[in-house]
Amino acid sequence: MSKVTEKADEIDKDIHKEIKKIKEERREKRTGVRKFFSDMLNMHDGMMSYEAIDEMMLENTVIHGPNMWILCLAALIASIGLNMNSTAVIIGAMLISPLMSGIMTMGYSLAVRDLRLLRRALLRFGTQVVISLISSTVYFLITPIDTPTAEMIARTSPTIWDVLIALFGGIAGAIGNTREKKGNVIPGVAIATALMPPLCTAGYGIASGQPSFFLGAFYLFLINTLFISLSTMIVTLMLRVPYHKSVSDKRQKAINRGVAAITVIAAVPSVFFGASTVYGSIMDKNISSYLSGEFVFPSTSLVKSSADKNAKSISVSLVGTPISDEVISMLEQEMPKYGLDGYTLSVTQNSVIDMTDAEDSTDKITIALQENRIEELQQQISEQEEEISGLKAENSGLKDVIDYEAVAEKAAKVFPELSNVRCGSTSGTGGDHAILLAETQIQLDENAQQHIRNWLAAETGNSEAELYITCDPPETAESTLESTAEATAETE
Asked: Reduced to 3 DSSP states, what percent helix, strand and coil does the chain have, rounded to the nearest 5?
């Protein structure tokens, strides 16, 4: 029995050894996985020494003459880029601007509890802001081009996405700035966060006397500044940089609460701007879907449309066979299906005289004219013939009456690709405008259309010449002629 007992004890020991071995292997595997992720997410890898970081941040607070000159030149370059609507020039100004370093120092000083360093960073940053504003304001006062560009307008309505860009960009910049090998992180952050362009746009607002430009652009600049500084503070705390301890724990808590309050207050307006942007984008999509889905008629085309989302109204201009009031009412009833509840629809259908038919010069066709002349045409159409007769009588000695019938005949010979050519004129805000209406079986490109437009302007002696050419492929020509005949019969 003793031998059996000893054998059992040995087996038991072997089992325990095997279990222990398995547990150790599992522990090593878990340790290996943790080590892998720890190494992958380690922010201390390649980091500068704490002393080197302190020295760098202190250097960022020193106001050097060369830095101020570079800042002034960067502001001028950014202003020129904004003025000329040049994205490449604006990016160049972002890269050479020294604004980023001072902003990061402010966040760093808050993290290490060094109010003296914070005061020095604020002094340098405030000086840089004043110099940049003065430089950009002076430029925009001198430049003869005072019209706001798309690059300027884009920097007057900051949204929550600008907040996120500044926050994430600041984190990337703070991590890259504390590495021994800087890499290309800092230039990328400078481009992404865009500090100098909104500051120069604010200078444009001062120079042009437009408070909306100044307030919107300067708000974007403050957002970028605040959240870059905040992200630098977060990264510094994560790196466990030692405190300088120039401020007590109680006072530091008060500072932290102040920073949190300022952050929330600064971010709230951007949330509303962002929500407005999203709503506007959704409504634009709904309006586009409504127009493309409902305004499809065999002999009537939608040529112009506009929407006022504040007034909840949509205005359209149609050319072709007039649609009835019943159809317009049905179009209005379809609007809720596209998320356009509460919107109103305004339909404009304009007409000009057809001058090509020798037998009936009073035949009418509908066309859409340019948006800035629609209202005036609607008011003047009933008095058009009387006004034209009066103008001919008053100016008979100044110019001859244009024979549009002859112009149409000549156009048909000069441009054999055109058919059913008709010419006429209409009065607008800028005077009389020559109009050519025609059909073609092939789609004309912009160059061909511009050639015809130039010819019409030369023939009529009117620089304002407009074309309305309908592409009618051979397979649909017969049906189009039938539709035109029916429309003519109804008009007669």
From this structure: 65, 10, 25
Structure tokens at 179: 């590495």
Pair 62, 184 in one domain: yes
Residue 348 lies in a domain: no
Q: Whats the size of the chain, residue-wise? A: 492
Domain that holds residue 31: 1-38
Does residue 9 share a domain with residue 75?
Answer: no
User: Do 235 and 365 share a domain, yes or no?
Assistant: no
- Dist CA 464 CA 66 (whole Å): 55
Per-10-residue mean pLDDT for the chain, 492 residues long? 63 69 67 61 75 84 81 92 90 86 88 86 90 93 88 85 86 83 69 84 92 90 90 88 76 81 81 77 87 81 82 84 83 86 83 40 40 55 63 49 81 84 75 81 82 83 79 57 48 43
Q: Is residue 290 part of a domain?
A: no
pTM above 0.85, yes or no: no
Strand-strand pairing, 300-308 and 364-367: unpaired
Residues 176 and 31 in one domain: no
* Domain co-membership, 23 together with 142: no
* CA dist., res. 101 & res. 469, Å (int): 59
Report the Cα–Cα distance between both ends of the chain, in Å, rounded.
Answer: 126
Residue 387's φ and ψ, nearest 5 degrees, are -65, -40
Q: What is the 3-state secondary structure (H, E, C) of 305-316?
A: EEEECCCCEEEE
Do 56 and 5 belong to one domain?
A: no
